């Protein structure tokens, strides 16, 4: 049987550059000969992508914070069992764009549901699966959210209506994202062995170099 693979998650505010960095890391690891699975949350399975549509579409109105959290976990439980655990069992490196820390930051912090229900649901629904390494791309709220908005405007022309409407969270105010960032930093403080804060203010190339060094050191890849 292959040795268990490695599970690496990327976290950060909208517009922190996570997706770009995840792609760059995937390319570098594949170049080194590793088998890499790239996935995301909410989503990552056909059921999860349908849930994602409900969660992110701006026409979804009046969703209660608890329903929002439950849908995040419905997507995640399916994702863990259908994609992440099988890939790890095959010895693959799994790179996931957001995981349970996002729920702790956005629903626990942003929506003020607190940490406890998130950790309890994670234990019940996801077997308390923990990433081997979490890269938290950190930046000022104003900078990240502004970047996410600019990206959405710029992308409008070339995207389908479904894609360009992925902005229900990006419509939140600055106080909401302040709470999200605060919750992220608290997780990093609580679990320093797993969660590494990477300053997201550098160029994409500079940030990638920092992440490569971190992955090399932490996971001996
Ligand atoms: P994502 O596609 O990663 O957005 P971006 O590329 O702009 O960072 O994530 C979609 C949104 O879903 C994002 O605003 C954060 C939110 N989200 C939660 O609120 N809770 C969660 O558990 C997850 C996974 C995402």
Order of helices and strands: EHEHHEHHEHHHEH
Query: Residue ranges: pLDDT <50 for 5 or more in a row?
Result: none
Cα-to-Cα separation, first versus last residue: 19 Å
Q: Oligomeric state of the chains? A: single chain
CATH topology: Rossmann fold
Note the overall shape. globular
> Strands across the major sheet, in which order?
2-3-1-4-5
Helix run count: 9
Helix content: 55-70%
CATH superfamily: P-loop containing nucleotide triphosphate hydrolases
Mean pLDDT: 92
Reported CATH architecture: 3-Layer(aba) Sandwich
Helix vs. strand class: alpha/beta
Query: What is bound: which ligands?
Result: thymidine-5'-diphosphate
The count of domains is 1
From the alpha carbons, calculate the radius of gyration and give it in angstroms: 17 Å
Number of strands: 5
Structure description:
The chain is an alpha/beta fold. It has a single domain, classed as P-loop containing nucleotide triphosphate hydrolases (Rossmann fold, 3-Layer(aba) Sandwich). The protein is 57% helix and 13% strand. It has helices at 18-31, 46-56, 65-89, 100-110, 115-126, 141-155, 161-164, 174-190, 204-219; strands spanning 6-12, 36-40, 93-97, 133-138, 195-199. Strands 2-3-1-4-5 form a 5-stranded parallel beta sheet, sandwiched between helices. Helix 4 runs antiparallel to helix 5. The protein is globular, with a radius of gyration of 17 Å. It starts with 5 loop residues before the first strand and ends with a helix. The mean pLDDT is 92. The structure holds thymidine-5'-diphosphate (TYD).
